Amino acid sequence: MGGQSTAFPLHGSVDTGLLRHIRRFSWIYAPSLADLGFAVRTSCAAILSLLIAMWMELDSPQWAPLTVWVVAQSSRGESLSKARWRIVGTLAGGVAAITLMAAFPQAPVMFFTCLALWIGLCCALATLLDQYRAYGLVLTGFTSAIIATGAILQPDDVFAVSVARSSYIILGVLCEAVLAVLFMPNMVERTRAQLQARLDDTFQATCAAIPQLLGMTAPVARQAATGRLLDRIMAFSGQIEFAALELGPRNRVGDHARRALAGMLVMLAHARALQILSPRPHASPLPTHEAPERALATWLRDHAPPPDPDNMAARAWQPVAMALTHEATVVHDEMLACHATRHGDRFRFSLTSRRHAREAVHNGIRSSVAIMAAAVIWEITAWHHGPAFISFVALIYGLMATRENPLVATLPFLKGGLWCTATAAVMALWVIPAITSPEMLLAALLVPMTIGGLAARRPRLAGYAFSFNMFLPVLIGPMNQGRYDEVAFLNNALAFVASIVFVLLTYRLVIPFRLDVHIRRTAAAINRRLRHLAQTRDHTNATTWLGACAASLVRILHQATAVPQPTVNACLSQQIGAMTVGLYIIRLRDMLRTGALPPRATRMIALFLARWQRGQAGPTTAYVLAWLHHEQTRPHDARDRAGLAEALACLHIIAASLHEHDPDVP
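Structure (tokenized):
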């Protein structure tokens, strides 16, 4: 009996472990219809582009399916945006390659020096841009390297190589676009419905989170909840551009949607101010039976602190709550404007995130050094596949340049490249030689490409699938008049794997990216900008300030696993506090600019803002608060009383935040 009783748990544990391992691959044998549709559609488009390129007897047909996998995205708008910038970048890169080849004939040192500087410039400028505009710029750089190195042994053919590479790009883009249109009918109606549903869901989540945030007294939990909501809002903001492309030209749906999301950021900043003024740890949650903006207004009215002339926080609650309610109404109105395209609508709004110029310079230097080092390796070794090695290095640097942390992104790229090399070895050396018809080629490539497409839809495997899908057709190298022999395949595969390892080493050795340094640099930059907000000539508005801070914070949170949790918590606290303080500094500056205060109060607020610019507002804040409180007891008309109440609320929130956060904040 004893032996049986110990055996049964053993069998159960084995079965449980086996089932756990089987379920890890459920994305292959039980994918969702959306994932399967994306994988099959993109695989068919890639194979179709390859067959057309071979039918046209182009010399390197494998570059066409690579383009398909590069531009293929989960939404049609993403694919359109990336394809558009890829074509622009390819054409610009072709012109740059021809110019470099013509400017430095028989001068390899000058040629590679200028090529390295050009690629470094493209990577540096791309660091300062968002979305696929950055991709188009880095594409200009690495396309010029691919074309130039492809023609370096025969410089007279550089124009023909440039035309051929551009032809592959356009062919791949067209094949992906045609298959996407066939697989995505009724795109406009579906996109508008999805945008509306996501806006409604995000707005409801924001309104529902405000009572919860006001009830959280633990700073770490409150900061984590705010960070998750900011991540959700900013991720949605990055996708709006693609939805606007799907809806067609001459519409302002994207602008209204971005303004609605910016309003949600303003609502969170006001909610943080209310939490500073008067926390509500035992308040009831938001009712769900009415519209979110009306439910929030009712909740704020019901949970307002009792009026108390001696309690400054209670007096400041009402102006902030009114501002929060007003912003919720604005968000609701902007969401209504997204329902249909209005004739004559010229509304424009954008959310931009500022990047650090120092990181751009580091990215450019790192890219230039890598290209020069790769050229030196080729010069020393005289390797026959040296030009391919240089082109792979330029290509991978271009792909990694716009990542938040290129070193972290390169590791899964290397693992996916190794899987790609192993699969390509089987295909190129055993499967492809036995193929005698296009139908057999399609059947042979469909399976690995579909698996790669399914992996691309899994966040955990997307980094692996990125390199696998792109470079599988390049390493297989199908041709009309022949095939890779073992030596050619091994040299090409070695150049590919060596280039990834080389890029990984340069990211570690040449000005390595450190997240803790980035966090300190971001904090210093925010403090400088926070002081600059008080200048009368500054035109930063609330939505611009909050959008830039939120985007910066979200970029840090995406890489937060690499630093200790106390450092992340301190960063969250500092940046969320700076967002709130900046909002009310902007409001004081605007009140001063528009003359919304009586003359005596105007002079005091001007004094406070002048001290704020110099980072000396700490001792002045309490004095100005006391003076304005005394000024409020003097007789004023209704307009001046409202202005004084709002100024007092702003200063009280600023003072409380200064007391709560790091004393280095101005």
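The CA atoms of residues 531 and 613 lie 5 Å apart. Confidence is low (pLDDT under 50) at residues 1-14, 662-666.
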